[in-house]
Predict the structure.
Amino acid sequence: MEGKKPPGTVGNSAGLPFSWPGLLYDTRVRGAALQVLLLIVLLLIGYEIATNTAANLRKQNIASGFGFLGRTAGFDISQTVIDYKSTSSYARAFWVGFLNTLLVAALGVVLATVLGFLIGLARLSANWLVARLATVYVEVVRNVPLLLQLFVWYVAVLRALPPPQQGLALAGGATFDVRGLHLPRPLFEGGAWWVAAALLLGIALAVGIKIWAGGRQRATGEQFPVAWMSIGLVAGLPLLAFLLAGRPLAFDYPRLGRFNFEGGLTIEPEFMALLFGLAFYTASFIAEIVRSGITGVARGQKEAAAALGLRRSQILRLVVIPQALRLIIPPLTNQYLNLTKNSSLAVAIGYPDLVAVFAGTVLNQTGQAVEVILITMGVYLALSLMTALLMNWFNARMAIIER
Amino acid sequence: MVLRLALRQFPSPSWRSHAWHGRGEGRLLGSALAAFLLAVSVPASAALSQAGTLETVKARGVLNCGVNTGLAGFSAPDDKGEWTGIDADFCRAVAAAIFKDGGRVKFLPLNAKERFTALQSGEVDLLSRNTTWTMSRDTSLGMNFTGVMYYDGQAFMVRKSLGVASVKDLAGASICVQTGTTNEQNLADYFSANGIGYRPVVFERLIEVLAAYNTGRCDAFTTDSSQLVSERTRLPNPDDHVMLPELISKEPLGPVVRQGDAGWANIVRWVHFAMLNAEEYGVSSKNVDQMLSSPNPEIRRLLGQEGDFGKGLGLDNDWAVAVIRAAGNYGESFERNLGSGSRLGLARGRNALWKDGGLQYAPPIR
């Protein structure tokens, strides 16, 4: 790097008087010029690709542009989060696929995190059997390809279930068969919003109590049973409202029709297979991340906490985990991104995610490969960047604040 | 310009694809690659339209022909790895018309989803893969159908034990269908037109659809009736399954070429017509050599003994002789692959010649 120059002087780094040829030898000017040149070349290449594509598509008489999104899709989708019929538009089909991807990714992330933490802690357990079982789980699941695991879940587990007529009856009116898990669908009647309001109030009160108790503990050292109070508020208030509002809840039970269970809420086997496959696979990686994060906290920290007289659970909760999280979160973000992207394997087992519906059926019907693939890549890029942003923000919050 | 020259190398991949029928799962990658090839490969100034597909094929010395990944009777590898079926025969017939050698074909197995991009991007010269001729495919995908190889219709198969007699009895049933096909759309149309509900169960490959049906994931399996007959033979107990009487759609299956090369489309179209005319005039792979001396002027024109009809196609005058030697006439190919000579045992039905009450009709050679 060059040294600082007094502001306002135009000249080269050697401090010589300004001259046009001199610019050629100024490394800063030369560097900037090269950057600008590179940018121009890149833009030109991009422009060339875009115009070449458009010209070729025109020449080959292939329809182009995004007008197809408004046309009627004309096919049905087995699982839809939003209303969708075969008369809906391609844009609607895109949203159905996108939301299906989002659904399986979000649930997968939650399930994988919970499982991963439990297994990671189990690997560090003092219990020999628990620790070895967790090791076996991690080593097996982590080293078998995900696609194969999806087939195991889908073909070996869920396809082996009996037909609807001989479905397995579960507690509470649910049944489980080769067509999926059929649950009673809750129907909320008038007055149900009292329960929702009570739940929100309970959560707000619990947060308030936690803040108040934290302040009091810092001021006086006295503790308050925050956990028990919170559970009481969050569970108790809605329950009270539910009873007072006259139990505003009914169930729509699945009934066996001629071919299938009608009514109720059906969870398709394709969805279950993908969710379980993704969650169990990713959990094995998360378990290792959690284990290494916890092992990474210096021994002295635990010993110091024990010397202060904290219980084992308190040591874990107050001293070890907060420090381990700093090591865990960055690689955890990677796993979340992987899980989201791996969800595109859905196409192999017939789950209607974004790739199957949009980059599959819609692409095939419209033939507009360039547009459809561009949109699909854009969606995955945006999803990944958003996940990364969120996790970076969380990581910054968890980082040690140095004073 | 440097960019264009560099990218011009792309559309003829040198992958050896003879034994490709178990293609992996990299579909998104495949589609993305195809889209990319489509986007940048074909230089705006050259190749496809001006150089001409015929010249490209001749220079390459082999015809790249897109076929089904495995559908008995249409295109499927046999136990020796040879491609058989009426669609595979047609690939050989076109190769024979050009090279006098039906063996100069590279078969590229494609699933329903991949087929159009493969044709558009130049990966194949000809798509001979039981593909339904529809208006949108003919007009907005940059390709043209050249004729109808097989007049088909969409049918349903169910287990006998269900006691279903008609498609209209399938209200509320789960129905298995392959994605990326007209079948998927016909299914939606038919059920919504009749006000019946159903649950679609959709897979990308026919083999997955069949497996799902076989394990009871769905009550019915729908696809073109010829395919259904073919798939039924692969079930453990074919007699436990029955086809419902309704055909819910018209499925004219035919070969497809890229739009914009009328000369190439002519070749493909007239190879098909030559096979039909040969059957009509009684010329077969067995008697074609004797027929060369036939006094019948129609046969003489077909076999290039009279006139110079090959010239109009840019081929030798005895192009049709090579076609008939390599693949036989239409009737021979049908019986060998779909009819009495095959496991499917399909009747000619609508695919009989027009003079026998069918729909297969070729314009005259004159």
Observations:
- Residues 262-280 of chain B form the longest helix (19 residues).
- Chain B touches chain A through 59 residues (CB under 8 Å).
